[in-house]
Amino acid sequence: METIFTDNDVYQDTFDPEEYLNTYYNPKSGICVVDGTLDLELKKLHETFTTRGVKGKTLIDIGHGPTIYQDLSACEFFDEIIGADYNDRSREYYERSLRNEPGTFNWDNVIQRVCDLEGKGMSVEEKKKKLENTVKKTLQCDVLKSNPLEPMVLPRVDCVMSLGCLECASSSLNTYRKCLKNVSSLLKIGGHLILSEILNCSSHLSGGKRFPAPALTKEFIRTAITETGFEILDLEVIYRTYDKDQYELCNHDSTVFVLACKVKDA
Ligand SMILES: C[S@@+](CC[C@H](N)C(=O)[O-])C[C@H]1O[C@@H](n2cnc3c(N)ncnc32)[C@H](O)[C@@H]1O
């Protein structure tokens, strides 16, 4: 019988940035590429900062992991992006990718797609420089703490983005609600939350080990965000078609993308 690991530290210790990038973002076989989620997330992020007008001074990207795709549109609309992740290896890989170091994951196709969406004729190299200059620092963070950036205390920011992180940190729906409240504390009233999570997932593989997931649903996410003091401005579910091999790696059936405005402290 397959063992399911429940210890968060085991997950953190086994998290391998290269394996993660290959599993989810490999241009030919990556789960998010094959099921079209990456493409749709890029479009939703573009729309968030253009049509929906989200912009400001500071955006914190919480649980950025080893990926940079999520910051490519944001870097045109914020003076600074602060990266924050629990895992040292994720932060190191993210910083190396921003510096475009040899041997890091090649995001050129994705960067070109974002430049095409923006339609300003920006080159891939120009976009890389823009992103590198906009991410001013990365910080250690733990969304399970009431101040996730402890011991640092930052002035509240205009935008918090967290894609696929809170559910990794949560062993239960109750913990998920607490994580949401913790990251919300970093945000000004009137500021924006950009959130994405996989839905109806019971387990996923990391470093060859299988981990449980809190099986989030669209209804749960909608209620949890609203109860944390947000007004939801956009909520879209991106569905995935069934594929046995891909479901073995991670058995979610869809991904939710949410844009919400903070109206009060919960
Ligand atoms: C599934 S990856 C998501 C990476 C990326 N945002 C993406 O869209 O592919 C989850 C990230 O959340 C981070 N993470 C897990 N638990 C955390 C916690 N308690 N606090 C902050 N980050 C955490 C992990 O280190 C990892 O980098």
How would you describe the overall organization of this protein?
This protein has 266 residues and is an alpha/beta fold. The chain has one domain (8-262): Vaccinia Virus protein VP39 (Rossmann fold), CATH 3.40.50.150. Helices cover 37% and strands 26% of the residues. It has 11 helices and 9 strands. The strands form 2 sheets. The protein has a 7-stranded mixed β-sheet with strand order 3-2-1-4-5-9-8, with helices on both faces. A hairpin with a 2-residue loop joins strand 6 and strand 7 (209-212). The longest helix is centred in the N-terminal third of the chain and has 13 residues, at 37-49. The termini are far apart. The mean pLDDT is 94. It binds S-adenosylmethionine (SAM).
Rounded to an integer in angstroms, the radius of gyration calculated over CA atoms is 17 Å
Helix % is 25-40%
Low-confidence stretches: none
What fold name goes in the CATH topology slot?
A: Rossmann fold
Total domains: 1
Instruction: List the strand order in the largest sheet.
Output: 3-2-1-4-5-9-8
Give the SSE string. HHHHEEHHHEEHHEEEHEHE
What can be said about the biggest beta sheet?
7 strands, mixed
Structural class: alpha/beta
What is the molecular shape? Answer: globular
